[in-house]
Here is the input.
Amino acid sequence: MKQFIMTYLKTISSGTNTILHTWDPKYDLVCAGCSSVFTEDRLKCSNDGALLRANYRNKQLILKDVPGMGKFHDWLPIHEIMTTESGPVTYRSTELAAELGLNNLYISFNGYWPEKGAYIKTCSFKELEAFPTVQKTTGKNRSLVLASAGNTARAFSHVSAMTGQEVYIVVPSSGMLRMWLPEKPTDSIHIIQMGKNCDYTDSIHLADRIAALPGMQAEGGARNVARRDGMGTVMLDAAVTMKRMPDHYFQAIGSGTGGIAAWEAALRLREDGRFPGGLPQLHLSQNLPFAPMYNAWKAGRREIIKDIDMPDPKKLIHEMYADILSNREPPYSVAGGVYDALSSTKGTMYGISNNEAKKAQQLFERYEGIDIFAPAGVAVASLIEAVNEHKVDSEDHILLNITGGGVKRLEQDHTLSKIEPESIAENANVPLEEIIKRKVLA
Here is the structure.
């Protein structure tokens, strides 16, 4: 069957909704709020600001014969099939499963572990966001702009180094220790470091200002369907491996975008009709003491109340073990966001202490034999709590998303290079000409 690609020449708007693009009719965008359908690429619904979801023409997932996440091409909003080895790897746990008394515990490992077939060289599932987003942007003669607490910056820098796509990434000073690559940094990577008193949300605000400049394009964060559907391949890979949908899905969250992505992927799998089981129950966790979504959900509220759910946020973030899980403006309340994902799946949230996260991280590493990041330790701790509180049964099919790990293993095969910041911004309101050295500002 012939495939027709409809080309639309769109004018560049002053906002971030409309971009110059070639529209691929493999999908359109549907508003999670008002159900409006859009046949042009955009980041939000013009009617209610709700999240948009990709509605793919192919309702059944046909795997492509390529390595990594490219096999899920039918449900990624890109035209060319990716050939990267990067992708989620699902395996059935034996050691940790036995320790917890679980007979069907599956682990999605998103990091570097060649012995398991895992080749995410930045050791974070943020790489699943970066590859489709950059591929979707390539050829538009625009620099991609985003903010990151560290892992996302590393992932997009890695893909930038591989493809030459120019990226401008704003990172809080606390995230600079995470700024390394498994290759030499290239001139296409521009890191802007925030001042010591700034956090991830300050980075987001500065990135928004930079993205409004001529020649720049906002990556989009949670509103970016390429980002969400890239992360959604975790659920797809698990369902293909298990030959069914899991009963439960565990993940630690900062913005919650990964939880939304898992829910959306499960909705597509249900529509596919070949994967038994209902929608997986979402078990999402945050690291205390900074846990605004956990606090709001526990109180039964759709809205996050800042003074109640995150008083003195910068102090609380400083006290976190997994500080990368901090976001003061998460997509919790928006239509199609975290609240809706939890409600749709009869999900639950956990508040995990630093001590619980550290112990769980050590437990996983002892039984599974690979190092993992602190956020993954938070997720493991939530699984332990669920087992202890009988929220899961021993025969349930459980998917545990290990969102990052394998750095120690990576260092055996690769020499890591530090990424130095190109400039430093003391706050989110600094004059842009002081931090962006571009001809457009001349």
User: Anything to note?
Assistant: The longest strand covers residues 281-287. The CA atoms of residues 338 and 427 lie 29 Å apart.
